[in-house]
């Protein structure tokens, strides 16, 4: 009992003596745990809202779009358990607050169906007593800033306007969120759709199939394609919808996981270094405890409790913070408990293992309390010999000697600084890649700044108005169509812009641009999906018409997970390409897209629909905030290592200070000696970390681009100026921190002790 009480008092006294270092240790571990929990939550499939929406709506696994109501008995297909629809759907344009957005108006019964029924989040479902009521899908309503009771003005293909009123806002699991997934979706009663679009030839029919085994969806889709080959326009499954709803969570989660795992290794090194440094500094105290009757096991346990408690406290704080942040962002039910518990348990084991070895070594301290703690002996390092040869000032020579007096702690300190600096360099590379997206949108397929849709005007008039604007350099007519992939029983996007002789300048990073009809370029996601490579031919089906193209190049494609094939407009059949759906406008250098848009709307008397292109960097802006937060955590890890190195250097040379002063060194020279010893390790670690980061940063970013479907060729390393500023800032900050204890030690009155 007395040993336990004495041990607890000793721990409290030691923690009080190093409050700053203790707090730094706790914050470091907490930041790493919070990052890991955030990464695991974002990478967990449960964060995808599709799962809960699919369960709430009793969703369909397969959605079919046909040009007429399917007459075949789809319920007879093996594996199909329930059918939703068929529902008639008509394309319209929504005119809201000066904006025009494409939408699909779907006829639904007043009684919600049992399968794939939208879940009303606000307001109420359709009612025959209000035939002009409309229920709008939530993401579409959010984009249009709609509220219950607001007018909902639509323009039919005939050009006639109709005003509906928002009766409800609903969630659906049948398509991705708007505007990543277009057109927007709205539901009306069949009688209202007949009034808005009386011509059946301008409509399509939508049918949902719920299958018994979701893993057999592909087989069911292939049977449907065979059965409805003549009528089928496109088909997609629950897998595409789930992927569309991820909203870049996986990219952010991957980045956090990379920083978290590497940061955990760096934090473990920092803890081991800190614990080892404290053991060396406490040899006299430990020897005194040994002489008082403490056993090896008791001293080892004492050290394990002291240093392990700080790490475990950081684990607990990080778990609470990480859980709280994710619960606030995604909801408490989206945070899976098993990954969180696994991270907490794994990090706790790493913490205990990191401090276990120094604790065990502390338990082997001999019970000789009077023995002074002498610095280790050894040969001069090569760097110290070089300092002597070039006749550096004595303070710098002594500091160079001191840097590598203890080689293992010196290596751990340099390595502990190199790992955070490597991750900082990678983070700066990610930042540079986002800046490149923003500054050079043409490198990610956004050569055009504006997209013009005819709206109420004729396509020829829309093209004429666009070409007459003084700031418009080139006008590319274009059409997006969905095509059935061969043997996949699913749809892919075919983007036709420009012509084969005057193609839209897609960013081709492998192969070449198409130059004739029947040639195409594709995104990495499409190449992986179809299992093809550059040079292969692929046969697609667009509205029942075969489209046979040869892939001649790979493009950087940020849309639809890279599952896009791009061709010239003249490669499509006339029925699919005439008239064009839109015109992509490439502006002259220095032109303001907002001004050009305003002029086009004014020139066309608001009859055109003019929208600005959305840069991928805008969707990933949250990553910049994450990078700043993670760099702050990595700086804490480096600071912890630095403080340990400074403390160990002062401990080893505490008795040398009086000798140095007696030799004639001024306090400033003594201070320079101590800072030089620490500064060399800092320069070595920071330089090695920056070099390692520069060697892998573009490869890691391109690897992520490849796996996400965007494709390799997007990675950018930080500029030389940015890297130089980061290195100088890291070294300067480290030296400034090391200067504080060195200054105190240089001014202290240390008596000369005979040895």
UniProtKB/TrEMBL annotation:
<feature type="transmembrane region" description="Helical">
    <location>
        <begin position="410"/>
        <end position="434"/>
    </location>
</feature>
<feature type="domain" description="ABC3 transporter permease C-terminal">
    <location>
        <begin position="258"/>
        <end position="367"/>
    </location>
</feature>
<feature type="domain" description="ABC3 transporter permease C-terminal">
    <location>
        <begin position="629"/>
        <end position="749"/>
    </location>
</feature>
<feature type="transmembrane region" description="Helical">
    <location>
        <begin position="671"/>
        <end position="701"/>
    </location>
</feature>
<keyword id="KW-0472">Membrane</keyword>
<feature type="transmembrane region" description="Helical">
    <location>
        <begin position="251"/>
        <end position="272"/>
    </location>
</feature>
<feature type="transmembrane region" description="Helical">
    <location>
        <begin position="20"/>
        <end position="43"/>
    </location>
</feature>
<dbReference type="InterPro" id="IPR050250">
    <property type="entry name" value="Macrolide_Exporter_MacB"/>
</dbReference>
<comment type="similarity">
    <text>Belongs to the ABC-4 integral membrane protein family.</text>
</comment>
<feature type="transmembrane region" description="Helical">
    <location>
        <begin position="721"/>
        <end position="740"/>
    </location>
</feature>
<feature type="transmembrane region" description="Helical">
    <location>
        <begin position="625"/>
        <end position="650"/>
    </location>
</feature>
<keyword id="KW-1003">Cell membrane</keyword>
<keyword id="KW-0812">Transmembrane</keyword>
<protein>
    <submittedName>
        <fullName>Putative ABC transport system permease protein</fullName>
    </submittedName>
</protein>
<dbReference type="GO" id="GO:0005886">
    <property type="term" value="C:plasma membrane"/>
</dbReference>
<feature type="transmembrane region" description="Helical">
    <location>
        <begin position="338"/>
        <end position="360"/>
    </location>
</feature>
<feature type="transmembrane region" description="Helical">
    <location>
        <begin position="299"/>
        <end position="326"/>
    </location>
</feature>
<dbReference type="GO" id="GO:0022857">
    <property type="term" value="F:transmembrane transporter activity"/>
</dbReference>
<dbReference type="InterPro" id="IPR003838">
    <property type="entry name" value="ABC3_permease_C"/>
</dbReference>
<keyword id="KW-1133">Transmembrane helix</keyword>
<dbReference type="Pfam" id="PF02687">
    <property type="entry name" value="FtsX"/>
</dbReference>
């Amino acid at each position: 009992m007395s040993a336990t009480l004495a041990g607890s008092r000793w721990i409290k006294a030691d923690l009080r003596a190093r409050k700053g270092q203790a707090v730094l240790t706790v914050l470091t571990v907490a930041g790493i745990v919070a990052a890991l929990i955030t990464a695991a939550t974002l990478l967990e499939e449960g964060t995808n809202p599709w799962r809960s929406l699919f369960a709430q709506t009793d969703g369909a696994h397969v959605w079919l779009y046909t040009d007429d109501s399917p007459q075949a008995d789809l319920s007879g297909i093996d594996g199909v358990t329930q059918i939703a629809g068929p529902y008639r759907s008509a394309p319209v344009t929504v005119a809201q607050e000066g904006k025009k957005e494409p939408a699909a108006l779907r006829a639904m019964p007043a009684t919600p169906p049992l399968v794939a029924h939208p879940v009303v989040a606000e307001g109420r479902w359709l009612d025959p007593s209000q035939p002009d009521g409309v229920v709008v899908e939530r993401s579409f309503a959010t984009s249009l800033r709609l509220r219950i009771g607001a007018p909902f003005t639509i323009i039919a293909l005939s050009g006639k306007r109709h005003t509906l009123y928002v009766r409800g806002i609903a969630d659906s699991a049948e398509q991705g969120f708007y505007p990543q997934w277009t057109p927007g979706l709205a539901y009306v009663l069949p009688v209202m759709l007949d009034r808005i679009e009386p011509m059946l030839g301008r409509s399509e029919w939508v049918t949902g199939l719920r299958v018994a085994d979701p893993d057999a969806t592909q087989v069911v889709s292939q049977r449907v394609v065979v059965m409805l080959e003549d009528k089928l326009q496109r088909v997609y499954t629950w897998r595409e919808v789930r992927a569309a709803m991820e909203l870049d969570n996986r990219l952010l989660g991957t980045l956090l996981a990379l920083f978290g795992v590497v940061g955990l290794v760096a934090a473990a090194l920092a803890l081991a270094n800190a614990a080892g440094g404290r053991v060396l500094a406490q040899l006299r105290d430990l020897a005194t405890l040994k002489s008082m009757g403490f056993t090896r096991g008791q001293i080892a346990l004492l050290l394990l409790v002291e240093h392990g408690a700080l790490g475990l406290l950081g684990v607990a704080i990080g778990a609470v913070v990480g859980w709280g942040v994710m619960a606030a962002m995604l909801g408490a039910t989206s945070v899976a408990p098993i990954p969180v518990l696994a991270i907490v348990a794994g990090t706790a084991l790493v913490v205990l293992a990191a401090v276990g070895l120094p604790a065990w070594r502390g338990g082997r301290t001999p019970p000789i309390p009077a023995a002074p703690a002498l610095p280790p002996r050894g040969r001069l390092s090569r760097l110290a010999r070089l300092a002597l040869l070039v006749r550096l000032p004595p303070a710098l020579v002594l500091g160079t000697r001191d840097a590598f007096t203890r080689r293992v702690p010196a290596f751990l300190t340099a390595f502990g600084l190199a790992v955070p600096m490597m991750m900082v360099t990678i983070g700066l590379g990610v930042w540079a890649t986002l800046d490149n997206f923003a500054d050079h949108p043409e490198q990610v397929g956004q050569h055009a700044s504006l997209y013009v849709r005819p709206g109420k005007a004729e396509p020829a008039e829309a093209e004429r108005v666009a070409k007459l604007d003084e700031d418009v350099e080139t006008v590319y007519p274009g059409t997006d169509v969905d095509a059935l992939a061969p043997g996949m029983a699913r749809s892919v996007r075919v983007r036709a812009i420009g012509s084969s002789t005057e193609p839209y300048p897609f960013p081709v990073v492998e192969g070449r641009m198409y130059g004739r009809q029947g040639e195409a370029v594709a995104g990495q996601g499409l190449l992986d999906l179809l299992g093809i490579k550059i040079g292969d031919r692929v046969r697609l089906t667009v509205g029942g018409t075969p489209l046979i193209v040869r892939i001649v190049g790979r493009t950087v494609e940020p849309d639809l997970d890279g599952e896009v094939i791009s061709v010239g407009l003249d490669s499509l059949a006339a029925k699919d390409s005439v008239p064009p759906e839109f015109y992509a406008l490439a502006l002259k250098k220095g032109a303001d897209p907002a001004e050009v848009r305003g002029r086009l709307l004014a020139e066309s008397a608001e009859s055109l629909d003019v929208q600005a292109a959305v840069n991928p960097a805008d969707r990933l802006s949250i990553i910049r905030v994450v990078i700043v937060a993670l760099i702050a955590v990595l700086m804490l890890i480096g600071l912890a290592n630095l403080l340990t190195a400074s403390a160990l250097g002062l401990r080893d040379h505490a008795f040398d200070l009086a000798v140095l002063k007696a030799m004639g060194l001024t306090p400033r020279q003594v201070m320079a000696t101590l800072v030089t010893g620490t500064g060399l390790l800092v320069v070595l670690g920071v330089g090695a970390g920056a070099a390692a980061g520069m060697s892998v940063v573009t490869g890691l970013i391109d690897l992520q681009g490849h796996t996400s479907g965007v494709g390799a060729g997007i990675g950018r390393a930080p500029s030389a100026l940015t890297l130089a500023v980061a290195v100088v800032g890291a070294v300067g900050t480290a030296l400034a921190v090391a200067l504080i204890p060195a200054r105190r030690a240089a001014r202290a009155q240390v008596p000369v002790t005979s040895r």
